[in-house]
């Protein structure tokens, strides 16, 4: 199969053929109308994600450009709703996650389940889990109690999600 019959995609390697425009041609930059003159070369690339916002599981492709100021999302394709587009932009530039854990309660066999009050940066998850691992709480613990302030320097609290007497 030749590349023209396949919409500009080579059947062998899945890459765009140089003579044909990329499939996202016409997608607007997140900084539309803004021209940045830095004199430094920039690097453009794509990342793909599976959307987790709804049961559809759309395959999202995010076009990124690396410049001196950081990552710029130049376009997103493959989404079917606004939540998917927002998820792709967030995941590509600053991924965040809720952290859940079981915290031991002194004198009890059953630990208390806990979660961060808000999502934290993905690159801070390991540090957060190390702090949580060292934590032991005294009974009684009530649902909603703050078990740890400022988890891993993120400014986010760890809260209990159940009551343990």
UniProtKB/TrEMBL annotation:
Q: Give one Pfam family, short name only.
A: DUF1667
Segments carrying the region annotation (Disordered) are: 1-31
* Alphabetical list of SUPFAM superfamilies matching this protein: CPE0013-like
Look up the domain of life of the source.
Bacteria
InterPro entries referenced in this protein's UniProt entry, alphabetically? CPE0013-like_sf, DUF1667
Which stretches does UniProt call biased (Polar residues)? 16-31
* Name of the protein: Molybdopterin oxidoreductase
Species the sequence originates in: Slackia isoflavoniconvertens
